[in-house]
């Protein structure tokens, strides 16, 4: 039903791109065994992470909310798991992290840190 | 470290393909241009337009919005409380134009969903492959007896920000000490569930400082309200008995108003106020009714995974106009929905299936100049339905320490910068 509106050659290129990147991201799978799909801006990891930036910018003038650019994948994963698992935590981040699975947290941590690296490479 | 090496490789290949975009420009040049039209340049529409354009630079994105500037409702209660200027609430569409989004300054008047054509109030037409509706709310002027557009010049709603916000502010400034301020709250659902009570807090803040003999009466058509325990405690602690809240069952429901005498009628009483703020009955923006994307409820039913209307194909509805409960009608929700919707539309346009995900919301409410409380929720949109994620979300702790409230106020200020940044700068 979802007739592609872009032509076939584009779909082909897209497909090839996904394959190329999927093989990369397999190698990126980390110690908790999840396979992050970091391939594109429309991946599951991207859509999950898109919600974070409504509060957390990368860089800028934030004072009370952390800036995402300071986080490596490991650090962000550890922090989010702490929020998720601290039973008596009462901050907004505790209340939110409890709604995400460990696997989703891994995806978010990997995607955000990959974006950070793209940004700093672009500077 | 194999991880970092492969990460680097991944990033290099992503850069070669146009970074976070989907395709390299050379590829894009050869593709047919798909067309996205977005109606409404508020938190939902402006954010969706930018994300869609960024994800798929070849996409033609047109944003239809009648106003040259957007005046944000979040933090407008601080303007009413005298803590902020309306200029700090005002944003232009310059950044969007610079990113290649076509801004059409007009009102969308009608949509032919079969032909996929939008007609504007100036007669121009726009073709689309996908349409996003984010028109926010309009008022049901007929629904509260005596309250029409003319009446709102005397009894401001201030539920769309701008001139109305300033009018309510001016009326409060002009009021004598010892006056009665009344806020009438319509029955849910309405835009920003904690908004009326944040407003009450900040009006009380202003009165206590400047007109301490005055009273603030909230006449509510509801039995309970968002963050009720936290608000009630804060009012008592900060403003003593200045604030009184009346539930619907305690004769709180206003069913008729007289604008000239500023009189509010409940079932059993007539109350003459010195300043009356009427938060009136609402429905999805009128254009949603014209498109027939709204049901009899006045709001738009959607498939929660794609945000596509269940009534009109290829039309996606986000923000206040949509039925997204348990997600509240908030700017935070509109922002999250805009990004998820943009991603799903790009997936559909490029032949991929839509994917369910997890969304979140947090509404901060100021209770005083430097203190705020919050409510959060996390939601799944699997299978086309929104659902609360069990065990997640909730409000600030009941044993509120002052420093916790101050922290949440500082977080709110950062949130406002981030969310307006994603939409407008
Ligand atoms: C007092 C108050 C305080 C609030 N505080 C908060 C808060 O602290 N946090 C929070 O998250 N939310 C808050 N909100 C809620 C927030 O303002 C809304 O949820 C948000 O604006 C919804 O975004 P939207 O895109 O659906 O609609 P809007 O932001 O209202 O945007 C709709 C746009 O569509 C345009 N439009 C309408 N019809 C047409 C048409 N036919 N053609 C073209 N354009 C059209 C309008 O001009 C407008 O620019 C508050 C609201 C109020 C009233």
Could you explain how this protein is built, in words?
- The complex is a heterodimer of chains A (123) and B (425).
- Chain A is mainly α and 123 residues long.
- Chain A has a domain at 37-121: Cytochrome Bc1 Complex, Chain D, domain 2.
- Chain A has five helices and no strands.
- In chain A, helix 3 (73-85) packs antiparallel against helix 5.
- The longest helix of chain A has 21 residues, at 8-28.
- Chain A starts with 7 loop residues before the first helix and ends with a helix.
- By secondary structure, chain B is α/β, with parallel strands linked by helices.
- Chain B folds into two domains: 5-66 and 105-139 and 282-420, FAD/NAD(P)-binding domain (3-Layer(bba) Sandwich), CATH 3.50.50; 151-279, FAD/NAD(P)-binding domain (3-Layer(bba) Sandwich).
- Chain B is built from eleven helices and 25 strands.
- In chain B, helix 3 (43-55) packs parallel to helix 10.
- The longest helix of chain B has 23 residues, at 402-424.
- Chain B is globular.
- Chains A and B meet through helix 1, helix 2, helix 4 and helix 5 of A and helix 1, helix 3, helix 10, strand 22 and strand 23 of B.
- The site of flavin-adenine dinucleotide has 38 residues of chain B, from helix 3, helix 4, helix 7, helix 10 and strand 22.
What proportion of the residues of chain A is helical, as a percent range?
Answer: 40-55%
Q: What are the segments of chain A in which pLDDT stays under 50 over at least 5 consecutive residues?
A: 6-37
Instruction: Output the helix-strand order of chain A.
Output: HHHHH
Number of helices of chain A: 5
User: Could you name the CATH topology of the largest domain in chain B?
Assistant: FAD/NAD(P)-binding domain
Which strand order spans the largest sheet of chain B, edge to edge or round the barrel?
Answer: 5-2-1-9-20
* CATH superfamily grouping of the largest domain in chain B: FAD/NAD(P)-binding domain
CATH architecture type of the largest domain in chain B: 3-Layer(bba) Sandwich
- CATH topology of the domain at 37-121 in chain A: the name is Cytochrome Bc1 Complex, Chain D, domain 2
* List of distinct ligands in this structure: flavin-adenine dinucleotide
**Mean residue pLDDT of chain B:** 93
Q: Most extensive chain contact?
A: A-B, 56 and 73 residues
Query: How many DSSP E strands of chain B?
Result: 25
- Multimeric state: heterodimer
The number of strands of chain A is 0
Poorly predicted ranges of chain B: 1-31
How big is the Rg of chain A? 16 Å
Query: Proportion of β residues of chain A?
Result: under 5%
């Amino acid at each position: 039903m979802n007739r592609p509106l872009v032509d076939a050659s584009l779909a082909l290129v897209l497909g090839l791109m996904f394959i190329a990147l999927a093989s990369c991201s397999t190698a990126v799978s980390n110690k908790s065994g999840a396979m992050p799909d970091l391939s594109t801006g429309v991946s599951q990891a991207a859509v999950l992470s898109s919600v974070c930036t409504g509060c957390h910018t990368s860089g800028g003038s934030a004072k009370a909310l952390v800036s995402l650019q300071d986080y490596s994948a490991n650090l962000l994963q550890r922090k989010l798991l702490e929020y998720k698992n601290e039973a008596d935590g009462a901050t907004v981040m505790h209340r939110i992290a409890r709604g995400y699975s460990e696997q989703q947290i891994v995806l978010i941590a990997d995607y955000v840190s990959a974006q950070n690296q793209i940004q700093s490479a672009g500077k | 470290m194999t991880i970092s090496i492969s990460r680097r490789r991944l990033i290099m290949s992503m850069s070669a393909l146009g970074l976070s975009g989907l395709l390299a420009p050379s590829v894009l040049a050869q593709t047919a241009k798909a067309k996205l039209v977005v109606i409404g340049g508020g938190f939902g529409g402006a954010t969706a337009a930018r994300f869609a354009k960024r994800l798929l630079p070849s996409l033609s994105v047109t944003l239809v919005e009648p106003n040259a500037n957007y005046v944000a409702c979040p933090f407008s209660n601080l303007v009413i409380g005298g803590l902020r200027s309306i200029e700090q609430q005002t944003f232009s569409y310059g950044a969007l134009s610079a990113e290649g989004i076509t801004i059409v300054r007009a009102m969308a008047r009608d949509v032919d969903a079969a032909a996929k054509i939008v007609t504007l109030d100036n007669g121009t037409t726009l073709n689309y492959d996908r349409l996003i509706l984010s028109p926010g709310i309009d008022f049901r002027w007929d629904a509260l007896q005596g309250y029409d557009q003319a009446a709102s010049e005397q009894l401001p709603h201030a539920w769309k920000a701008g001139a109305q916000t300033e009018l309510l502010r001016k009326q409060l400034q002009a009021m004598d000490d010892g006056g009665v301020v009344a806020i009438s709250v319509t029955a849910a659902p309405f835009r920003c569930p904690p908004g009326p009570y944040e407003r009450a807090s900040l009006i009380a803040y202003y009165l206590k400082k400047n007109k301490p003999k005055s009273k603030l009466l909230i006449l509510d058509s509801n039995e309970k309200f968002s963050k009720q325990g936290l608000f009630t405690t804060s009012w008592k602690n900060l403003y003593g008995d200045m604030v009184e809240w009346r539930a619907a069952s305690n004769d709180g429901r206003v069913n008729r108003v007289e604008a000239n005498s500023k009189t509010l009628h409940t079932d059993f009483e007539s109350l003459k106020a010195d300043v009356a703020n009427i938060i009136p009955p609402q429905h999805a923006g009128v254009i949603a009714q014209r498109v027939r994307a709204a049901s009899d409820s006045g709001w738009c039913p959607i498939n929660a995974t794609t945000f596509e209307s269940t009534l009109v194909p290829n039309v996606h509805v986000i923000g206040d106009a949509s039925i997204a409960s348990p997600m509240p009608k908030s700017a935070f929700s509109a922002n999250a929905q805009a990004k998820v919707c943009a991603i799903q539309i790009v997936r559909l346009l490029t032949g991929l299936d839509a994917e369910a995900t997890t969304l979140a919301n947090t509404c901060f409410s100021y209770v005083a100049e430097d203190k705020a409380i919050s409510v959060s929720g996390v939601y799944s949109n699997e299978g086309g339905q929104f659902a609360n994620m069990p065990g997640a979300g909730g409000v600030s702790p009941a044993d509120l320490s002052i420093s916790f409230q101050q922290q949440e106020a500082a977080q709110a200020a950062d949130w406002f910068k981030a969310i307006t940044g994603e939409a407008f700068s």
